[in-house]
């Protein structure tokens, strides 16, 4: 029996289109049908761009019929999170008041993917303002984890993670300011790439408004996929347009080869935080896969991890706002988000630790420590979060939420230092998927992807799946 088109990855779909075995329209229609059949059960795709995606598919098929060259992503359906601009579609950020905030142009990474032949077919759900680790809002409602409706799909790129995990999209385009690509990947059993700071332009020249400094420094756009090679393919076509991003750096996608064996440091003890046995088991399986492939794997502790988490919190708290005076949260957000934020705000404030005289000066000190630490062992294998996907509603309980910042230290340090990291699943346990992250030196996504591909080759892929 032939594999359904919606079950294939981006690489395979592009090959079929280039080889003339399927048309772009057939690929897009297959995914639109999959959305019709699956999305009512998971609520991941918020808007279907049916008319425009079919028109784009027909135009691509016409170009191929005229003998024009197919782009590297020709006919590949993608979904885009609702805080990334897609021309003619609302950039809602999951907020009711922004439901009509239609974008005049594509974000730079979306424009680059279109230029490579990708076809946006839908927008995906996110928590309000991207400020929660569970995907729910008053505008679109809650997104359901296809592995278990009782557990979170993660956030804030939870809609894209679910869309990819269920075969509604071949690639999801989201962003990561505090693990927002990697955490949903862990919850949903897919792969994700959080690129280095400056790799992918955040905004175009015609951005609707200013971007707070914290989001310029800590947040990046990146892909979600079912296969590591699809992450590599998408990433290679997200980096070419600077837009108006002052952090953009046109750095080669591949760095110099490292002498063998490449060293990998496994961090199992993030400054004394208990690692769940299932998460520890996932790390162990990934470490064994890398060791069997010839990597030199050793355990170690990450430097200044607690202080890095505190400095991250201080920068986000002080410089994550557009206006000096913020409106009361209850005037702009849903009751669910208000309840979450009232629960989390004192925990967040405590997580900032002792106030730094100059947080950016301390950031530079921590960056030097990590650079020296990684100079001998360039790859770090670590948990994304030290616990698996939580039960829906847990993040509204202050006792449960109290240690959240500590469990996410190894996610946010990557954002603080602008490093690349790849989330890769390593298998299910107790009915839930588990994943690890591979962190590399800045601008060495290639090393992270190489190692993630080794893990994937050993452990296999977990998706697509039908909702359970």
UniProtKB/TrEMBL annotation:
<dbReference type="GO" id="GO:0004040">
    <property type="term" value="F:amidase activity"/>
</dbReference>
<comment type="similarity">
    <text>Belongs to the amidase family.</text>
</comment>
<dbReference type="InterPro" id="IPR036928">
    <property type="entry name" value="AS_sf"/>
</dbReference>
<dbReference type="InterPro" id="IPR023631">
    <property type="entry name" value="Amidase_dom"/>
</dbReference>
<feature type="domain" description="Amidase">
    <location>
        <begin position="26"/>
        <end position="449"/>
    </location>
</feature>
<dbReference type="InterPro" id="IPR020556">
    <property type="entry name" value="Amidase_CS"/>
</dbReference>
<dbReference type="Pfam" id="PF01425">
    <property type="entry name" value="Amidase"/>
</dbReference>
<keyword id="KW-0378">Hydrolase</keyword>
<protein>
    <submittedName>
        <fullName>Amidase</fullName>
        <ecNumber>3.5.1.4</ecNumber>
    </submittedName>
</protein>
<dbReference type="InterPro" id="IPR000120">
    <property type="entry name" value="Amidase"/>
</dbReference>
């Amino acid at each position: 029996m032939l594999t359904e088109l919606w079950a294939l990855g981006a690489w395979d779909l592009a090959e079929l289109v280039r080889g003339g075995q399927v048309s772009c329209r057939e690929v897009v229609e297959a995914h639109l049908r999959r959305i019709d059949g699956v999305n009512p059960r998971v609520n991941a795709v918020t808007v279907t761009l049916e008319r425009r995606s079919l028109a784009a598919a027909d135009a691509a098929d016409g170009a191929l019929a005229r003998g024009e060259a197919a782009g590297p992503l020709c006919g590949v359906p993608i979904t885009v999170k609702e805080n990334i601009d897609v021309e003619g579609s609302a950039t809602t950020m999951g907020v009711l008041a922004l439901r009509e905030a239609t974008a005049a142009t594509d974000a730079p990474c979306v424009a680059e993917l279109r230029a490579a032949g990708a076809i946006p077919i839908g927008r995906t759900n996110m928590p309000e303002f991207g400020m929660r680790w569970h995907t729910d809002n008053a505008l679109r409602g809650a997104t359901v984890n296809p592995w278990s409706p009782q557990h979170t799909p993660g956030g804030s790129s939870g809609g894209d993670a679910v869309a990819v995990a269920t075969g509604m999209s071949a690639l999801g385009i989201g962003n990561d300011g505090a693990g927002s690509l990697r955490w949903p990947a862990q919850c949903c059993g897919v792969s994700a790439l959080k690129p280095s700071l400056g790799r992918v332009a955040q905004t175009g020249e015609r951005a609707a408004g200013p971007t707070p400094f914290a989001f310029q420094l800590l947040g990046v756009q990146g892909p979600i996929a079912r296969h590591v090679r699809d992450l590599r393919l998408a990433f290679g076509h997200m980096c070419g347009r600077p837009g108006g991003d002052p952090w953009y750096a046109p750095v080669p996608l591949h760095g110099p080869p490292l002498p063998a064996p490449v060293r990998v440091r496994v961090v199992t003890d993030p400054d004394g935080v208990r690692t769940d046995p299932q998460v520890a088991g996932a790390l162990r399986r990934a470490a064994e896969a890398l060791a069997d492939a010839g990597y030199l794997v050793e355990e170690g502790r990450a430097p200044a991890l607690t202080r890095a988490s505190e400095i991250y919190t201080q920068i986000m708290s002080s410089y994550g706002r557009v206006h000096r005076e913020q409106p009361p949260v209850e005037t702009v957000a849903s009751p669910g988000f208000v309840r979450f934020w009232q629960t989390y705000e004192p925990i967040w404030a405590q997580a900032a630790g002792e106030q730094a005289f100059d947080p950016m000066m301390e950031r530079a000190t921590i960056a030097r420590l990590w650079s020296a630490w990684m100079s001998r062992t360039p790859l770090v294998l670590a948990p994304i979060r030290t616990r698996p996907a939580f039960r829906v509603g847990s993040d509204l309980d202050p006792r449960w939420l109290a240690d959240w910042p500590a469990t996410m230290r190894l996610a946010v340090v990557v954002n603080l230092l602008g490093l690349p990291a790849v989330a890769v699943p390593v298998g299910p346990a107790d009915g839930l998927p588990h994943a690890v992250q591979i962190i590399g030196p800045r601008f060495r996504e290639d090393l992270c992807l190489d190692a993630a591909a080794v893990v994937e080759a050993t452990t296999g892929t977990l998706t697509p799946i039908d909702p359970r």
